[in-house]
Amino acid sequence: MNKSIIDSYDKTNIYLVKNNIENPKAVVVIVHGLAEYCERYNYLVESLNEDRLSTYRFDLRGHGKSGSIKGWVEDYNAYVKDLDVIVDIAKKDNPEKPIFILGHSMGGFITSIYGIKFGKKVSGTILSAAALETPKEAKGIKRLFIKFVNKISPKFKMKNNLGNLLSRDNKVVDKYNKDPLVLKKVTIKLYYEFLIKGVDWLKKNLYKFNVDCLILHGEEDRIVDYKSSLNFEKEISSKDKKTIIYENLFHEIFNEKEKDIVINDVKKWINNRI
């Protein structure tokens, strides 16, 4: 494992963790979700490494050990540009090796936009409970509220209430809620950039997504409705696309007791494309 701080495109410090193995079959770049950080994916990384897949993961700006104001982003495109910096590093370190991106939740949103803008640079994408549509919490009057508050007080912070909805495994929930690196509050600016401005752009441009794609979702996800993944599959232009909906699983499908089934589906899908 190699840990480092790198400069992103605008000199923002990004915390990067490489788990490279000798002569890998392919490389997987992992993009975490809202309020969390990359080292919550240790189990997934170990399993991918066992299958001779190297991994690159990083803390999003404003998250974990990366720079910028905590829980803030100036423009959702900054996340996409940061991901592109990491992909370029992975490609430089691993010439001629296939590169795949795996994005969870907000990381799936970022990965989807990356697929539209830079999709030719990678061999495929894997979306885990991707946040691809505006949730109920940001629609109607609440949408107007977010837009209004963002205009007058963008640094206003909203409490992170995701913890208890992540997994059926109480140990995962308890660890998340007590984790000092998990953001307890997120700025309204980030919510606006992500759930309103960013999702609006994504929905208008879904037809431009033309990358091989594996779409994974828990049927009992209480944070992101699994139907958004089904809609995504219908709207994108990819010819090679597959959706798996896991019965009974909550939002963090890589942190449920059935996680090995999910991870094996990921490995099988990658192995069939390299």
Descriptive overview:
- By secondary structure, the chain is an alpha/beta fold.
- It has a single domain, classed as Alpha/Beta hydrolase fold, catalytic domain (Rossmann fold, 3-Layer(aba) Sandwich).
- It has helices at 42-50, 77-93, 106-118, 140-152, 170-178, 188-205, 227-235, 259-271; strands at 2-7, 13-19, 26-31, 53-58, 99-104, 124-128, 157-159, 185-187, 213-218, 241-246.
- The strands form two sheets. The chain has an eight-stranded mixed beta sheet, sandwiched between helices. It has a two-stranded antiparallel ribbon with strand order 7-8.
- Strand 5 (99-104), helix 3 and strand 6 (124-128) form a beta-alpha-beta unit.
- The chain starts with a strand and ends with a helix.
- The model has no long low-confidence stretch (mean pLDDT 95).
Number of strands: 10
What average pLDDT do the residues reach? 95
Low-confidence region ranges: none
Estimate the strand proportion: 15-25%
Structural class: alpha/beta
Report the radius of gyration as a whole number of Å.
Answer: 17 Å
Q: Into how many domains do the coordinates divide? A: 1
Oligomer: single chain
Question: What's a concise summary of this model?
Answer:
The chain is 37% helix and 20% strand.
Secondary-structure blueprint:
Layout: E1 2-7, E2 13-19, E3 26-31, H1 42-50, E4 53-58, H2 77-93, E5 99-104, H3 106-118, E6 124-128, H4 140-152, E7 157-159, H5 170-178, E8 185-187, H6 188-205, E9 213-218, H7 227-235, E10 241-246, H8 259-271
Parallel strand pairs: 3-4, 3-5, 5-6, 6-9, 9-10
Antiparallel strand pairs: 1-2, 2-4, 7-8
Helix pairs in contact: 2-3, 3-6, 4-6
